[in-house]
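Contributing new records

If you add data, match the layout below exactly. Sequence lines come first and carry their own label; structure lines follow with theirs. Keep one chain per record. Anything else will be rejected by the validation script.
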Amino acid sequence: MYGTVARFRLKPGMEAELIKLNQEYQGLQIPGMRAEYIYRMDANPNEYYMVVLFESREAYHSNAASPEQDERYRKFRALLEGDPEWHDGEVVHAMA
């Protein structure tokens, strides 16, 4: 598996919009996508971490290069105080 961990901060009052946006994407069938998790931090409720998992590096990069993902990203980015901090990499261990 391959994916990203992103750290981001929402603009004030945008949490409901983030939830609404993610609900819109619930039914999408993005090729190779396996999971997405968004965490709100206890220490700073305006700070979030998002984990997105794909079946392979190729599927991840194919999605990232798609016009559809660019459109989704632009809607997401409009809710943020600044650019997300991205950390891409291969999953070397998972326990479910």
